[in-house]
Task: inverse folding
């Protein structure tokens, strides 16, 4: 392995000379002697065999080669600073990564807002979001494969849950569909004769596909976007989050169906910490930001 000809300290000194406009100013900013900075840059140029700076009057100017190398050096010194910060965070117990299970009916804009609020103080923590459905969310919680879970419906047995919001699912179809002819005069028997689009349960142990399941014919898809694509062709009906289809309903691209005894299905969403005893500071911070998105600040 070839040893590096230069050091990070030399590059940091070069950056300071350029950023502060000269050796004297950089020396004052770094609390070093001007001669030591002159020596460091001169040695760096000699080691590389490339002229990096020229002096005109009392100010230092980058050469063309120096500008290219300086720009690349900033990535390196920044990466080292981030690496050192990550090591310090790990020493203090700050998690390098977080995984969130998100029941797909949970409003994504709320989660994005919380993650954006987390970003300025994330200390390099990486975030992964797993979209899950029904028992798939429960399995992630029970196996403690996630740090936080946004769970629809009742929480798994033995887990405390903080209620966040409710999501209303409404039955919809394309305006050209037969069901749209009398959308306010429907019952479960009339629905059962038509194709239903349902969302696949992501659990591995059971299968409880999302939606009213009395239809004789069903097509199962992975998410709401696939369901909407099928509905757009005029096939079937589906229970979808009202917020997700509000624009299509307003534009007349979808028709809402009103079923006697069940005009909509209201699903509670809870925030669950699968293992609070092992919860780290990054997870706690993000938890509070998610709660804040729902106007909740008292939960601990």
Result:
């Amino acid at each position: 392995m070839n040893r590096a000809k230069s050091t990070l300290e030399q590059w940091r000194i070069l950056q300071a000379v350029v950023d502060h406009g000269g050796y004297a100013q950089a020396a004052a900013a770094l609390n070093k002697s001007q001669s030591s900075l002159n020596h460091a840059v001169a040695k760096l140029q000699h080691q590389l065999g490339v002229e990096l700076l020229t002096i005109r009057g009392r100010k230092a100017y980058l050469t063309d080669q120096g500008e290219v190398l300086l720009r690349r050096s900033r990535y390196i010194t920044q990466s080292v600073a981030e690496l050192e910060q990550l090591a310090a965070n790990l020493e203090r117990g700050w998690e390098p990564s977080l995984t969130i299970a998100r029941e797909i009916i949970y409003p994504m804009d709320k989660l994005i807002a919380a993650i954006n609020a987390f970003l300025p103080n994330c200390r390099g923590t990486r975030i992964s979001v797993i979209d899950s459905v029904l028992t798939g969310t429960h399995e992630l919680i029970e196996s403690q494969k996630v740090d936080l879970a946004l769970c629809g419906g009742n929480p798994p047995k033995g887990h405390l849950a903080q209620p966040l919001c409710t999501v209303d699912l409404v039955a919809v179809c394309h305006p050209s569909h037969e069901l749209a002819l009398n959308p306010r005069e429907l019952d479960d028997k009339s629905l059962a004769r038509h194709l239903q689009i349902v969302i696949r349960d992501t659990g591995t142990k059971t299968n409880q596909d999302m939606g009213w399941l009395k239809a004789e014919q069903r097509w199962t898809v992975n998410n709401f976007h696939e369901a909407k694509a099928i509905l757009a062709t005029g096939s079937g009906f589906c229970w979808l989050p009202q917020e997700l289809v509000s624009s299509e309903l307003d534009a007349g691209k979808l028709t809402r169906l009103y079923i006697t005894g069940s005009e909509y299905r209201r699903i509670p969403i809870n925030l669950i910490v699968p293992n609070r005893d092992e919860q780290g500071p990054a997870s706690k911070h993000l938890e509070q930001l998610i709660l804040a998105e729902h106007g909740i600040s008292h939960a601990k």
